[in-house]
Amino acid sequence: MSAGIQAWGVYLPYWRLQRAAIGATLGGPSGRGTRAVASYDEDTTTMGVEAARRALAALDGAPVDDLYFSTPAPAYLDKTNATAIHAALELPEWAGAYDLLGSVRSAVGALRSAQAQATADGVRTLAVVSDLRTGLAGGPEERDSGDGAVGFVFGPDDEGTPVAAELVAHAATSSEFLDRWRTPGDPDSRVWEERFGQEVYVPLVESAATEAFKRAGVVAADVDHLVLSGLHNRAVQAVGRSLGTRPEATVSDRTPVLGNLGAAQAGLLLADALEHAAPGDLIAVVVVADGADALVFRATDALPAVREARAARGAVTVEDSAAGGRDDLPYARFLTWRGELRREPPRRPDPERPGAPATWRVTPWKSAFVASDCRACGFRHLPPSRVCLRCRTIDEMDPVRMADAVGRVATFTVDHLAFSPSPPVVGAVVDFDGGGRYRCEMTDVDPDRLGIGTRVEMAFRILSVAKGINNYFWKARPVVGAEAPDGTGDGHDDGGAAT
Amino acid sequence: MTSNGIRDRVAIVGMGCTPFGERWDKGVDDLLLDAAKDAIGSAGVTLDDIDAFWLGTMASGVSGVALSKPLKIDYKPVSRLENFCATGSEAFRNACYAVASGAYDLAMAIGVEKLKDSGFSGLTGVRPVGDGTDAALSSPAAFSFVAPAYAHRYGVDPEEMKQVMSRIAWKNHRNGAVNPRAQFRKEVPLETITKSPLVAGDLGVFDCSGVSDGSAAAILCRAEDAHRYTDHPLFVKALSFVAGPGGGASDPDYDYTTFPEVVRSAEDAYRQAGITDPRAQLAMAEVHDCFTPTELVLMEDLGFSERGLAWKDVLAGVFDRDGELPINPDGGLKSFGHPIGASGLRMLFECWLQLRGEAPPERQIATVAEGRSLGLTHNLGGAPGECVSFVSVVGPERS
Predict the structure, then answer these.
(1) Nearest-CA distance from B83 to chain A in Å?
(2) Residue B146 lies in a domain
(3) B338: annotated active-site residue
(4) CA–CA dist A375, A395 (Å, integer)
(5) pLDDT tens digits, residue range A163-221?
(6) What is the pLDDT of residues B337-389, one digit of tens each?
(7) What value of ipTM does the predicted structure carry?
(8) Which of B121, B126, B137 has the highest number of chain A CBs within 10 A, making it the mutation to test binding with A?
(9) Residue B327 located in a structural domain
């Protein structure tokens, strides 16, 4: 049997923008529903890290050989973005890390590359797809798209980590035509008249799907879960009717709540399908982008056990991720985050850029939040220290990864003076379960619902941007559902520091 | 730790202090020259008589040339020091040791800072190239952890805590209002302070010290030579300086209700000066009230109040200018202003005026007439859990 999907992870940002808020601000018709919005301190790399963490958290810590990262909206050019994810996950130095950038379709390339290499070399690989969809204010791109990331672990079937779904067949068609395009650096894509794209796309998709079904030895009606993904909505709707699949097989696309996640959309719906499929089910993934890709997966007998193991490890389902979050993001703040609204900065110095050598020297700490434990007395140091704060023993430290640790807020403050693209900065002192204290910034947090004792976890974020450098580091965020319920928080009774 | 002290071996024989504030009209060089001129005039000496110089500045100049050039110092030793907000005190301390050692007869300690030229709000710092992992928290935010922690530990109602903080700001503004050198020379109603816009945590604008320009200087000699220069010298009774291991932010046992560095430096200084009951023995103290909760906690760390009771002492007026132990009678960092490198020497300048009876009658403290003669200055630099602390004790009598 070829290698297949061993694990998956989906990251959807905390924030949702109500489409009605766009119309309310700009005038004009009010849309319905919401879209997922990456926060001011997120980009495709940080969202990719979160998705990959979720995927790997569902597995034992066996190493991943190679990492393929795909996004149409890369944080950097020239410099590899996958290496930031590689570092955050503490993948072994010998693991390759590759970007497939620029187009929505490259996401399929990442999945196929990871799958092919896992099959060929009998190793475990990771594909991460992330997208942050932008568009001009008031336009359909802004309104109908969403931000998010997915990660899939591919590997050979074995007892410890069974394959949950195997790839049965794949077929593609490619075509050069102007459906949508974007000049690097522009916030918005341009699109040709939709009916033109529909006319060109439908036969391309039918051709790829038909060939894939043929190679899989199935017919369209056999498909139990049809994942249809593409930014050309008319074409996607049309092929949904013309492929010959059963109508009930089409996986709901979640766009009313999340918007279309672009490159990550197919992965989101594939993960959704994996969370609902029965053993033996056929899952067809059809991606409509500059041609078409059709991938046919079959759920294995191990799928229910894989899901159970995921649940036991606290994995969040697509359902829960989509339902979570906060949907009262003001449209003006959304525009500010996306750089569409230039706001007066505070009268504070711009953040300084971190030094490349200084950053490199502390890579485990900065990228993977690795602290140090004193071998002599056990005291935990964040940041890692060569001299023990408690017993003063020198250079007797063991590294300890804290990125996945959970803790509680010991005290916190709301800082109206510090520089931030989205003031105020919330700072917290966090005491981690099992030891260790760290003072850091918080994110995805409502200070009015924060209290002493609030449970927090760590998130990989952009601390600052200076001179073209995205200064990635870790912030604390409330564990989903852990914010104090009513604006008083247990901390206020406890003498909390909220203002 | 051995800290022998140099009690009564060094004397201050002249001091100068510029007005603090938004000194748009004066550059760093002007401020230095003004403070130096005042100090040598007060000691009745010329620059030529000074053998060595210690310049304290955090970021307004580097190297001894920052002083030797504006003063046109003729080929003499000039050291430039930096030690966070204790920079001015550090210049003073090092100059004291140089004189006590016998290496020099007459030394100048001078501090300066020009903060307003940056055009920014609040403090700005110059840091070495970093790894980018420090949280972007401002100084007020770092200190804002103190008030709720204190209130929590000692069961002070949040509303009452806010009143305590406001009372401290109110007192320091009241003191500064009658001080012609202070940056803010207006009394501020309690309600205005309490309702001022929040900067960080519970700290409002009026809970934060002034950002200012200014300079202050002292002329030092060996104690036995003091009367060559003045009939009313101040003798150095104690000097203590400590830097902590800086682990507060990663130590789960640290609860933000005390500055251990201050406790240690106070113990050291009291031992050197032979002080056993600071609240009763000191005539006054100038302490580092960078933020109002800082002054509150300092009252306990410096031994002026029992643990957990300083807030009651504050509300009872114990530390008012006419109280049992006047704290920051010159207005403190809060209303005199806080040009980093100058602040430590500015504190000594107030001791210089008050303990020698030179403060104008409208703001002369009563404790001196009551027979108390010792003054304390205290500087804190850094943030809770990661700081340096300086304590000095000075007095007009030599035992």
Answers:
(1) 22
(2) yes
(3) yes
(4) 9
(5) 999 999 999 999 999 999 999 989 899 999 999 999 999 999 999 999 999 999 999 99
(6) 999 999 999 999 999 999 999 999 999 999 999 999 999 999 999 999 999 99
(7) 0.92
(8) B137
(9) yes
Does some domain include residue B20?
Answer: yes
**Beta strands at A425-432 and A437-442: parallel, antiparallel or unpaired:** antiparallel
Confidence tier at B299 by pLDDT (50, 70, 90)? very high
A-chain residue closest to B203, CA distance: A499
CATH number, domain containing residue B342: 3.40.47.10
Catalytic pick among B96, B173, B208, B338:
B338
Q: Give the pLDDT mean for A276-281.
A: 98
Residue B17: domain span: 10-118+213-232
Taking CB atoms and an 8 Å limit, are B137 and A427 in contact across chains? yes
Is residue B224 located within the same domain as residue B365?
Answer: no
Cis peptide before B339 (omega within 30 of 0): no
B198 CB-near residues (< 8 Å, 6+ apart): A414, A416, A499, B204
**Interface touch B130/A425, C-beta < 8 Å:** no
Q: Where are the alpha helices (DSSP H) in B316-365?
A: 332-336, 340-355
Domains of chain A: 4-337 (3.40.47.10), 357-493 (2.40.50.840)
> Largest Cα–Cα distance of chain B, in whole Å?
60
A495 to chain B: closest CA residue: B152
Prediction pTM value: 0.94
A452 vs B contacts (CB less than 8 Å): 152
B297 and B166 within one domain = yes
Give the model's pLDDT for residue B389.
98
Active site (annotated) includes residue B227 = no
* Residues in A 428-447 with any Cβ partner in B closer than 8 A: 429, 431, 435-441
In a domain, B107, yes or no: yes
Q: Total structural domains in chain B?
A: 2
Give me the pLDDT at residue A399, please. 98
- Do B183 and B217 lie in a common domain? no
The count of CB pairs under 8 A between chains A and B is 150
Same domain, B343 and B245: yes
Alpha-carbon distance A469 to B227, whole Å? 61
Angle at B107 between CA B102 and CA B112, to 5 degrees: 145
pLDDT in the model for residue A481: 63
The residue with greater pLDDT, B128 or A325, is A325
Distances (CA, A) of A318 to A82, A315, A323: 24, 10, 8
User: A389 touching B, CB under 8 A?
Assistant: yes
CB contact under 8 A, A499 and B131: no
Contacts of B134 (CB under 8 A, 6+ apart): none
B135: pLDDT confidence band, cut at 50, 70 and 90? confident
Query: Is the CB of A441 less than 8 angstroms away from the CB of B144?
Result: no
Question: Are B262 and B157 within one domain?
Answer: yes
Residues A389, B202: C-beta atoms closer than 8 Å:
no
